[in-house]
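BUG: 3D viewer hangs when loading the predicted structure for this chain

Environment: internal workstation, default settings.
Expected: structure renders.
Actual: progress bar stalls at 90%.

Input used:
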Amino acid sequence: AGKTTIATALEDRLVKAYGKHVYRLDGDNLRTGINRDLTFTEADRAESVRRTGEIATLFADAGVITLVGLISPYREDRDLVRKRHEDQGIPFYEIFLDVPVEELKKRDPKGQYARVESGELRHFTCIDDPYEPPVEPEITLRTHELKIEESADILFRRLEMDGILEGAPKLSPPGLPNPDGDEVIDLHVPEHLKAERRAEAEGLPKVLITDLDLNWLQVIGEGWASPLKGFMREGTLLEVLHFNSILVDPFNLTDNVNMQSSTTDFQTFKEFRPPDRVSMSVPITLSCTSYTRDLIESSPDNSVALTTQMGNVVAILRNPEIYPNRKEEIVTRMFGAIDPGHPYIEQIYNGGEYLIGGEVELLDRITYNDGLDKWRKTSKELMAEFEEKGADTVYAFQTRNPTHAGHAYLMRSAGENLKKEGGYKNPVLWLSPLGGWTKEDDVPLDVRVKQHEEVLNSGLEHPGGLDPATTVMAIWPSPMVYAGPTEVQFHAKSRRSAGASYFVVGRDPAGMKGSHQAVAHKDDDLYDGDHGRYVLQNSPGIGSMKMLSFVKVMYDIADNVMKVPDESRLQDFISISGSKMRLLARNGAVPCSATDIPTDLVDANCVPSGFMVPK
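Structure tokens produced before the viewer hung:
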């Protein structure tokens, strides 16, 4: 029926994709040792199943995924093994290979059916001994109708869906990954404690935060930087700067569960390091002046109130750790470039001389009252929406430009490929516009979101539209830091916190041109266009997150759609880059003539009809 062959293919996937420890138990390795004293009588078959079940239980208890390919004809024997696993709290899957006997006789790789026919072999299941099919198997495989890889993929996807491969309790809906650090982060004060916390905050020292700080506070509080629970302490910042990741111990295996939320100690180290490393590539810090430092240090309170420039107290920061803001070290390690005119580097150098680390509690949901708050959803809310849509996987597409037909082509193609090649039934697209601070010449958030709304309203009737039934739009609240390969790691990791398993990444992600003050790249790309994807694919802590790369698509003036260019008539294709599109938007471009589309769109200041949805 293919038991051993399918188990071998599944083992290969589990080892290569997740690095799991796997062991196969089947008749070949059992009958030569532990079961060599058993025959094929009903009693001996029952004992064979019992012994194998006990071995599988022990292996699984030791963390080994155990694949048992055994002829087990009697329902009672299988049910006893199931109960043994359930009693031990070990997941158990009964796989029924539903293959007609005549098909098995045709295959007969070991010649056993021929021996039965000659009378040499007796008590053979389905021939002269009965077989009792499972009543409710977890999975049924009609292997005579499936390729080996298809059968293995069905099993692999089921283990993924059920969270078996996470190595941690399942915290997310079926098919969606756990957040980094295996902890759902939601730092909003519960409703019944809000009045008490607000009263407390009124009496605490006030720390004034900028709009940029507010963006980062929202990122932390809503779980987008899991498992981070506050602005980075000095030790956490050092890990981020040097390793683009942080060590975590969510289950306190090494007595380090509070490592990232404890005051940094440079003199004393625990005997054992935390066992896991999760992606965290971008510093998330809060700067302050020496005046604020003195105010905090002179206060008897061990907490401060974070206050916006409008005077609104938005959060409490506990157990503050104040340390020097080593700006040059942060900039050089974060950006790998010397460019005083870089917009985010300017923000860092304009910050105070000190940094404040500490865990935060959000007194209320952060809102902007700009008409876009309905699209601002927390990571937990997004998880719930993906589950409501029945997603068996989620792929995220980040935008800081209006969405054009090329984007739509890539997003729709990605969904179809996930079905065709990935074996998914209902992949859901997360259209994820970046919603925090951006540089001055980027397209404003309200313009992008309104255009995205029209993309969804257009559906599949326009080449630039998307299917609202399989798409969720939600603003990602992070600011943009334009740190290229370093930043794109955070973009991907953050989307996993809300349930994405795939992240669509294009050329030069999170990159930009150097300013006129750049030392090495004046008015040229700061980062090589291919480096971002490469670094992301191989970054530490990225885990099972997978990348979907852009393919080159261009606008075909022959039929007014975006597609992969036809090499035989390249003269009919126009390349439209993100920077070109931002320039057209900034210049108030109008629709091009349907019959005469210019090759230089910027010079003509027009947009082809099939390039973007009408509105």
